[in-house]
C-alpha cells in the first residue's frame, strides 16, 4: 500500500513515523567515566536471552555514554517510572552535567543508578558490540537487577505516558502468566 498524501516525505521521515508508532519503554542507560558519570535516554532496549541473562541497547556511536560503557566494560539500564518524564527529557538533551539535575546513587560496582526515577534497573557487563549506521548495539550480561515500585513510562508518537494499566509491581513465580 502506498501513501498518496499530497505531502512529500523522505524515506527517513517515513521511517521515523512508522517507528514512532511503536510504543516503547523509556530507559536511561548510564555508565561510569573518569570525569563523572554518563547517561542518555534510550528506547532501543531488548531482551536477548535468559541463559545467560542478556540484553541489548542501541546507543549513538558518537555518544559519551557509549564510549564510557565500552571503556569501562559495563553499563546500567534504568527503566523509568511514569513520573520520570522530566528525567527522560534531561537525558535526551545535550546538557553537560545531566546528573546534577536528578537524584542518583552509585551502585556497589560503580554504576550510576537513577533509583528515584526508575521502576526497575539492570546492571550489565559488556559482552559484544555491533556497529551499524550511526549506532552501536551493545550486548550486556545482567549481573544484578531490581524491580522498584511504580509503573513504567512509555513513549510513542513523540509523547510520554505512564502505563497505569499495569498491575502493581509483584514478583511473579516462574510459569505465571
Write a structural description.
The protein is mainly beta and 177 residues long. It is 14% helix and 41% strand. The chain contains three helices and twelve strands. It has helices spanning 11-20, 64-72, 85-90; strands at 24-25, 27-31, 38-42, 45-50, 53-60, 74-80, 105-106, 112-113, 118-132, 135-147, 153-156, 159-162. A seven-stranded antiparallel β-sheet has the order 3-2-6-9-10-5-4. A hairpin with a 5-residue loop joins strand 7 (105-106) and strand 8. The longest helix has 10 residues, at 11-20. The protein starts with 10 loop residues before the first helix and ends in a 15-residue tail after the last strand.
Summarize it.
With 177 residues, the chain is mainly β. It is 14% helix and 41% strand. It has three helices and twelve strands, in the order αβββββαβαββββββ.
Amino acid at each position: 500500500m502506498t501513501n498518496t498524501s499530497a505531502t512529500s516525505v523522505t524515506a527517513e521521515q517515513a521511517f521515523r513515523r512508522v517507528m514512532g508508532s511503536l510504543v516503547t519503554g523509556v530507559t536511561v542507560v548510564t555508565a561510569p567515566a573518569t570525569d563523572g558519570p554518563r547517561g542518555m535516554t534510550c528506547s532501543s532496549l531488548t531482551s536477548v536471552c535468559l541463559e545467560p541473562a542478556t540484553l541489548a541497547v542501541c546507543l549513538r556511536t558518537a555518544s559519551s555514554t557509549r564510549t564510557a560503557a565500552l571503556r569501562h566494560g559495563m553499563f546500567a539500564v534504568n527503566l523509568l517510572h511514569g513520573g520520570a518524564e522530566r528525567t527522560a527529557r534531561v537525558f535526551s538533551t545535550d546538557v553537560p552535567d545531566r546528573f546534577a539535575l536528578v537524584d542518583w546513587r552509585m551502585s556497589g560496582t560503580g554504576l550510576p543508578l537513577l533509583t528515584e526515577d526508575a521502576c526497575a534497573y539492570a546492571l550489565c557487563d559488556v559482552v559484544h558490540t555491533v556497529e551499524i549506521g550511526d549506532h552501536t548495539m551493545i550486548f550486556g550480561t545482567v549481573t544484578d537487577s531490581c524491580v522498584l515500585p511504580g509503573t513504567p513510562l512509555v513513549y510513542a508518537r513523540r509523547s510520554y505516558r505512564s502505563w497505569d494499566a499495569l498491575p502493581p509491581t509483584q514478583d511473579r513465580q516462574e510459569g505465571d502468566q
